[in-house]
Each structure stands twice: as C-alpha cells, then as structure tokens.
Design brief:
Blueprint: E1 4-8, H1 20-38, E2 42-49, H2 54-62, H3 67-79, H4 81-84, E3 92-95, H5 99-114, E4 118-128, E5 133-135, E6 154-163, H6 169-176, E7 182-183, H7 185-196, E8 202-203, E9 205-207, E10 216-217, E11 220-225, H8 227-232, H9 234-237, H10 243-246, H11 255-261, E12 264-270, H12 274-288, E13 295-299, E14 302-304, E15 307-308, H13 319-326, H14 328-337, E16 345-346, H15 349-378, H16 395-399, H17 403-424, H18 426-432, H19 434-455, H20 460-472
Parallel strand pairs: 1-2, 1-12, 2-3, 7-13, 12-13, 14-16
Antiparallel strand pairs: 4-5, 4-6, 6-8, 9-11, 10-11, 14-15
C-alpha cells in the first residue's frame, strides 16, 4: 500500500435533506480513512455538495429562492454531517459553486476540447430530470426511466456540446480489465459489459435559455456545462488542480501531485453510479491526459421496510434524528455491522433499536461496566496501554471493505471475554484469591484495551471512552443506556 491515500465520496445533490443512504457512504469512507491513518498513511478525505443542474434550479424556484441562496442553505446541512457522524478531522468539503472548482471545470473542458473530444451538434431525446441525463429508449422500462419511474420524461431538442465517449471504448476496456479497479467484482463485469455493448457520445452542455444555473462553457456564454461534467471534476479540483501545478508549487505542497499522481486513489459510490464514475469520468481523465482512478468501490442501497425510501410513503430514515436519540457511535456501529457493504440492506427503526439494545447496551456497554467495576475495586493500578497500536488483525477485512466481518470479529472477542468471566468466576475470585483475581483482571483489561484500539475506526467516541476508563481505572458512565 502507498503511503498517501486519496479517498472521496460522491457529491450528493442538494435538493433534499441528508438521508441515511449518504450517511452510509460517509461512514464507510470514514472507517477506511481512520484505519489507514492508524497505520501511518497520509490521508486526504474528500466530500462535498453537487449544486448545479436543472433539478436543483427547479427546486429553488419551487421554494421561491435564488438558486445560490437555496444551495447555500442545503450545503450547510450537509456540512453538519462532519460533526454529527464524527468524521475524520482533516476531511475536505468541496462545493461545485466554489470559484476554484468552477475554474477547474472550465480547464477540464478546455483540455478535453483541445484533445478533439468535444463537439457541437443538434440532438433530440428523452430527458430525465432525476438523473440529469438523456435516456435511451432501449433503457426504458414501461416507458419510464428505470431509476425514476414516477417522473415523466421530457422530450428535448436543442443544440448542445457532446463528449466523444465512443472514441474511448478500447481504452476504457483496457482500464476496466485490471483486477481490483472496481469493487465488488460483479460491478466490474457490469461496467465491462456496458462498454462492450457500444458507447454513445453524451451531451455535456445545456442551452442557457432553458437552464442557466451552471458553469459557463468556455468561449460560449449561450451554454452551461452539463451537471455531471461539472461535478465529476470536483475529485481533482479539491486538490488544487490545475492551479497548484501551474503556479509551480513544490511537490511537498502540491496536493494533486502527492495524492492523485503519486498516491493511492479511491472513490466510493452507490451501485447506480457505475456508468458515471467508472466510464464517463475515466474517459474524461483520459481525454485530459490525467491519471485514472485506481479503485472505485460501489455500495448497495438502503431500503426501509422492504421499499425504497420515499417521503410520500413516509419511510425515510433521518440520520440526524438517530444521532440525537441514540448517539453517533450507535449509528456508525449499525451501518458498519448490519448493513451489507455491497448488497441492498433493509433499515427500520425496530431493527436498529433491537441491535442497539442487544449489541451495545447489553453487549459492549455491559462488558465494559463489569470489567471496570471489578478493576476499580480490586486493582491498585491499571495495565499500561500506551503502546497498543496493532490493528492488523482486521486489516484484510478493512482493505476488502468487508466491514460486517471486521466488526463481527470484535464482537466475537467481546463474547469470549464475557464467557471467560463466567467460566473463571472472576467476580468471586477477586474476593477470595487476590493474586489470581488480579491476574484475571489484568488479562481482561488488556484484552478490552486491544478491542478499544480496534474499535477506533468504527466507533471513535466509544473507543476513546474505554481507553480513558482503563487508563484511569474507573468505571465509565453508562456507555449505551437501554432504550425501550
């Protein structure tokens, strides 16, 4: 593994409040970067907000707001996720309305145009506002967009600029045939099959007379950039591209050179993003003469009660509400252990509450309380835990993004300690045989301290509370009060 890691989430549209699906992506990303940071890797963690496009423009008008005021309000809500989910301290937040990003997107356009990959033509097709994309008739299901079956498609005819995606079929296939470039493997095969089926050039601009909320096309004020062409560039604009290199910054200060060129690049995205992240974006990078993303990890969706989340159905899960009632680490734990990393998973508050009480209140919280209650009474001093830094026992699972298995491993260790206390009757031994009892407690505390270190990427607050309690040899306040 390289010593510099760049990891980015996708940028959510700011046309609605943050939902549990994006919280999942953020937590998965945060677990990975925290783990790599524990190993001494230099990390650049990127997220942010996608703020242009017809969908956002219409939502702003519906609410009687100027588009900029509208996106400012929602961007602030997404920024709050850093605190609410306790995300890694050096996370970077990019907005596609940032002046530096706009300039970078225009430079990306110029480079692709200079390569001969952007041209203008008239086009007529069916447009899905939900996807911010034209939909081929062969992709329709019962005449509807497969991703937004409740939205009506609009037939649009206008003159736009197009990106010559069809010119990159062979280069994309060569890229996609590298093992590990997409995780899980079946998503890589999905991308290969899509490219082998033939690629069509895609529209990369919109006429300002129809929708002016976007980044102006260089040298043509009659057009604004297609929101995907604009937004995808955020992955490198956040690193100061292309201006740090152009201004001659030394390598030690040039984030793009350090992380994108010289480091390990990793993107997280939902399973519906394969076409955008692993095909369109990679072709844009090729056109601009820039290195491709080394790995993209695609997660499944979160459903609720077996259905896709929808405000009209009333099954939307609010991550802020969960954090308010149960705490940040309870939500992080559930997303890591009980949501499949690559498949769709169902999330209901009943399931969440059941797992909280069984695994956290009765499980981890009770184990910590029992051990620290005994040690604070029967040990004069705790064991030294300052040198505990080894986290390699869950390394394979973390590198494979198999967070379920990694957390299962930690809970198996906790269950072993719980069984050991009963088997050795530590509660009685500490009262009747001081030497043997202290040996048992010292072992239990050492094992608990190791678990606390391994918990840090998943439940950072809880990890610190346990380590502090051990170092002070003091029973902590109830970590996870039972909920009825």
């Amino acid at each position: 593994m390289k010593q510099s890691l760049y990891l980015t989430t996708t940028l959510p549209y700011v046309n609605a409040d943050p939902h549990i699906g994006f919280a999942l992506e953020l937590v998965q990303a945060d677990i990975y970067v925290r783990y790599r940071a524990l190993q001494g890797t230099s990390v650049f963690f990127n997220t942010g907000t996608d703020e242009h496009g017809l969908k956002i423009y219409r939502k702003a008008l519906e609410e009687g707001k100027e588009p900029q005021a509208y996106v400012d309000e929602y961007a602030a809500k997404f920024r709050m996720l850093k605190e609410k989910l306790n995300l890694f301290s050096n996370i970077h937040f990019v907005r596609t309305t940032d002046p530096q990003h706009k300039a970078a997107a225009q430079e990306m356009w110029r480079r692709c145009s200079a390569a001969g990959d952007i041209y203008k033509k008239k086009y007529k097709g069916l447009y899905c506002v939900g996807d911010e994309a034209f939909i081929k008739e062969s992709d329709l299901i019962d005449g509807k967009c497969p991703n937004h079956p409740t939205m009506d498609l609009t037939e649009i005819e206008e003159e736009n600029y197009f990106f010559r995606l069809s010119a990159y079929q062979e280069k994309l296939l060569a890229y996609l045939r590298r093992e590990g470039v997409i995780v899980p493997e079946w998503r890589r095969q999905e991308a290969i099959n899509f490219v082998e089926g033939g690629l069509e050039d895609f529209s990369v601009s919109r006429d300002t007379s129809r929708m002016g909320w976007g980044i102006p096309v260089p040298e043509d004020d009659s057009q604004v950039m297609y929101v995907w062409f604009d937004a995808l560039t955020n992955y490198i604009s956040t690193l100061g591209w292309p201006f740090d290199s152009a201004h001659g910054k030394p390598a030690s200060e040039n984030l793009f050179e350090k992380f994108w060129v010289g480091g390990e690049t990793l993107q997280l995205a939902g399973k519906d993003q394969v076409r955008f992240q692993s095909i369109m974006w990679q072709a844009m990078l090729m056109s601009a003469g820039l290195p491709n993303t080394q790995r993209v990890v695609y997660h499944g969706f979160i459903t609720s009660g077996g259905q896709k989340m929808s405000k009209s159905i009333g099954n939307v899960i609010d991550p802020y509400a969960i954090v308010e009632e149960y705490g940040t680490d309870a939500l992080r734990y559930y997303l890591a252990r009980h949501i499949q990393p690559f498949e769709d998973s169902d999330f209901t508050m009943e399931k969440f509450r059941e797992a909280y009480n069984a695994d956290l209140a009765n499980g981890l919280g009770n184990l910590v309380a029992r051990i620290l209650q005994m040690s604070s009474t029967h040990l004069a001093a705790p064991p030294d835990i300052t040198d505990l830094k080894d986290v390699t026992e869950i390394q394979t699972d973390i590198y494979n993004f198999d967070f379920n298995k990694a957390v299962d491993h930690l809970w198996f260790r906790m269950q072993y300690l719980d069984g050991l206390i009963h088997e050795q009757r530590t509660f009685e031994v500490v009262k009747t045989n001081k030497i043997t009892g202290q040996k048992q407690l010292t072992y239990l505390l050492g094992q608990l301290a190791e678990i606390a270190v391994l918990l840090e990427p998943f439940m950072p607050y809880t990890s610190e509370k346990i380590k502090l309690a051990i170092s002070e040899n003091k029973k902590p306040e109830n970590l996870f009060p039972r909920k009825e």
